[in-house]
Amino acid sequence: MITLYGIRNCSTMKKAFAWLDEQGIEWQLHDFRKQGVDPKRLHQWAAALGWRTLLNTRGTTWRSLTPEQQADMTAGKALQLMEEHPSLIRRPVLEADGRLAVGFEPAIFASVLRG
After folding, report:
1. Rg, Å, the chain Cα set
2. Can you give the three-state secondary structure of 43-104, one letter per residue?
3. What's the CATH code of the domain at 96?
4. Taken in order 25, 7, 104, 54, is the CA torsion positive or negative?
5. Angle at 62 between CA 10 and CA 91, to 5 degrees
6. Residue 84 has what pLDDT?
7. Which of 27, 86, 107, 112 could form a disulfide with 2 if both were Cys (CB 3.0 to 4.6 A apart)?
8. Per the residue annotation, which of 7, 10, 54, 82 is the catalytic one?
9. Domain interval for residue 75
């Protein structure tokens, strides 16, 4: 089963939902707002993709952090912030049979889903 991790009302997530539906691909949603983020899974993603790839520095949650919270970012600090504020995780995170993609790009999704 394909799982999309993110926030249901995010516009990028909605594009991913529509694309998957158009391709006839079954998927399930893990909504960070309702279900939170599993720290173990977050650390696995960071190990596979890099914490910088996962950290969303373009959203309102990032802008709402204090300058001290944003300064001197390290992997540990970024992961702690993402655990505390799951909306800091770039969306969507696609998991399919152990393969991952972050952000929505149709070509990348297609490649990941082909295996």
Report:
1. 14
2. HHHHHHHCHHHHECCCCHHHHHCCHHHHCCCCHHHHHHHHHHCHHHECCCEEEECCEEEECC
3. 3.40.30.10
4. negative
5. 30
6. 96
7. 27
8. 10
9. 2-114
Residue 10 catalytic?
Answer: yes
Number of domains in the chain: 1
- Environment class of residue 113 by beta-carbon count within 10 Å: exposed (0-12), middle (13-18) or buried (19+)? middle
Q: How far is CA 111 from the centre of its chain?
A: 17
Residue 49: what residue type?
A: L
CA distance 37 to 61: 16
Q: Which helix (H) or strand (E) holds 46?
A: helix 39-49
Q: For 20-48, what is each residue's pLDDT tens digit?
A: 999 999 999 999 999 999 999 999 999 99
pLDDT at residue 46, as a whole number: 98
Q: Whose structure tokens read 């912030």?
A: 81
Q: What is the mean pLDDT of the chain?
A: 96
